[in-house]
TrEMBL record:
Binds 1 FMN per subunit. One of its GO terms (molecular function) is oxidoreductase activity. This is Putative NAD(P)H nitroreductase. Belongs to the nitroreductase family.
Amino acid sequence: MDALACLMTRRTATRLVEPGPTSEQLAVMLTAATTAPDHKMLRPWRFVVVRGEARTTLANAITAAAEAVGGLAEPVIRKAAGKATRSPALIAVIASRVPGSKVPRAEQDASAAAAAQNICLAAHAQGVASAWKSVPLPDSDEVRAVFGLTGGEELLGWVELGTLSDAVPLPPRPRVDLPAVTAELTTAGVLAPVPALAAAAATLVTPAG
Ligand SMILES: Cc1cc2nc3c(=O)[nH]c(=O)nc-3n(C[C@H](O)[C@H](O)[C@H](O)COP(=O)(O)O)c2cc1C
């Protein structure tokens, strides 16, 4: 798959089933993550792979976190914990800010987000389906501890990985109104339409439901 095809055809998986990614495929994803643009090369990110039985360890941490909240109904707790085991594997993406750096926190977090996208794209390039999802109870002591988070670190989500189930079709991706979100600055200082957008948009693959 060439790079543009990879970008244009990546979709977020609806349901992920076995087989999960191999160790070699995971290693490629993690390596690709570290090529994210990174102001002053701070490496303001960390990644934690969770798969196999370790998913139950993660689910137990989420359960403990949800119970500690107090007053949550049992099905709510079970649903939150079940997110840890709904895919064969996942990679947690941690914004690991460098304190005292002149690089603003938003830029450091942007690098971590770019790393997460690289994981999704490197998965897709290898035929692995992915879904970037929020982490349940990300600020709880229990969930922070299971990922080894320290003071200035924060979970930006996790990327679930596996094989796309054909049981749940991908929804069509709503079209983006490209002229509404793009412009080109002219010499006269006017924001004008970007040329050739329609032709580029036609290369977007939007699977019909
Ligand atoms: C930080 C982050 C967290 C997300 N969390 C969730 C989530 O918890 N549940 C969900 O359904 N989609 C979540 N999404 C959105 C999906 O990953 C996906 O981008 C969206 O459904 C659009 O699908 P597409 O990637 O196929 O265009 C999240 C996206 C980001 C960037």
